[in-house]
Structure formats: C-alpha cells, structure tokens
Specification:
mainly alpha; 2 domains; 0% strand
Length: 228
C-alpha cells in the first residue's frame, strides 16, 4: 500500500491569516460591543468600526512586514558571518560539521569523507552550517511584503464580520445581538479550522478562540455601560 505523507505546507501564509483573522474578529467586535452600550446611532458605530479596521489592518500589516524584514536581515547577517568563519577558522568549522554528522549516526570514516566532500563547495558548506548548526532556513525574499498583505487583508475580512450587523439593523442593541451571534459562530468556525490545520484539538481550539472574543466584547460592553 502506498504511503501518503500529510504535512502542513505554506505555514507562513497560514500564520499570517491566523494573526490577521484573530485580531480582526476580536478587536472590532469588542469596539462595536462597547459603543453599543454608549451610543444610540448605528452610523456612529459603523464609522468608528471602519476607522478601527483601516487603522488596525495597516498597523497589523506593518507589524507583519517588519517581522518579515527582521527575519531576512537576521539570516543575511548570520550568512555573512558563517562565510567569514569558513575563511578565518576552516578547521573549527570542519570539526563542527563532523560533530553534526556524528549526531546523525555516521561512522568516523564516513564523517571524514563527507566533511572533505562538503568543504570543497563553500556555498554548500555554508548552507549546511546555516541549516544544521544555526537551524536557520533562508526566508522568502518577498516574505515581508506577502505577510503585510496577508495579515492586512485577513484583518479587514475578520473585522467586517462583526460590523456588518450594524449595517442591516436600525439600532445598536439589535445590531449588537446580531453581531454577537454572527461573530461567535465565526469565532467557533475559525478556531476549529485553525486548530485542525495546526494539528491541535479542534473542539478545544474553537472554544478557546470563541471564549477570548466573547470575553473581550462583553468586558468592553459592560465597562462602557458602567462608566456611561
């Protein structure tokens, strides 16, 4: 029987969507909930919500961009340092390669042969050290731009869900009730599929994500109502 391996791919993309959607569903939901207990106009809530979604998507996207740039810059710095070390301390670097092969279970004779073979090609030698000594994979050069876009769009999509209820209702209380039901369902679905994709317990993951969103929204709602 053929063996089909199932591994999670495009983890960066999934991480970006999870980050954007998580905050997108939660923050505008909490904002709208808080405003629902303080104002009498759906229009005000929609305007405030749109402003928050725009600002939030830009801020989150910028955070993703900076994280991507930091990862790439860090890799380039370590790559440059590793190249220099093969020039300044070649025997030390060879010893480190030999130790890595030893941990893989290769015999001493095979280790020596592999080290000599690998050290003939400096690019492969350095790439090997980056992966197995420093445990660094070369990031996608477009990762920063992709992350910014993915997170920003995911935030907008997530933020639109709790706000749409106020577009189709006439007063904040009705809007909040509909928004609450819609967003809770979406939080459960999002938490379920996020947990399933990442190999966690789907039901528990769904309940956790839903609980975070509900606690944030209800806290905002009752705190604003209390101080109002």
């Amino acid at each position: 029987m053929a063996h089909h391996e199932t591994h999670l791919k495009s983890s960066d993309f999934i991480s970006d969507i999870v980050i954007g959607m998580s905050d997108g569903l939660t923050v505008p939901f909490a904002l709208a909930a808080g405003l629902s207990s303080a104002v009498q106009s759906n229009g005000l809530i929609i305007k405030a919500g749109l402003a928050e979604i725009i600002a939030g998507s830009i801020a989150m996207g910028l955070g993703g961009y900076l994280a991507g740039r930091t990862a790439l810059d860090h890799y380039k710095t370590e790559l440059k340092r590793e190249y220099q070390e093969t020039i300044d301390y070649p025997e030390t670097e060879k010893k480190e390669v030999r130790e890595i092969f030893g941990k893989m279970g290769l015999s001493s004779k095979t280790q020596d042969m592999a080290v000599e073979e690998l050290s003939q090609d400096k690019d492969k030698w350095v790439k090997f050290m980056m992966k197995y000594e420093l445990e660094l994979e070369e990031p996608d050069k477009n990762k920063a731009r992709k992350s910014a876009f993915n997170i920003g769009i995911a935030y907008i999509v997530g933020g639109a869900i709790p706000m749409l209820s106020y577009v189709f209702t006439t007063d904040p209380q009705t809007g909040f009730k509909l928004s609450f039901i819609t967003t809770v369902v979406c939080l459960l679905l999002f938490g379920y599929f996020k947990s399933k994709l990442t190999g966690q317990q789907p039901i528990i993951g769904a309940l956790k994500v839903m609980a975070i969103g509900v606690i944030a929204a209800m806290s905002a709602y009752f705190l604003v109502r209390l101080f109002n």
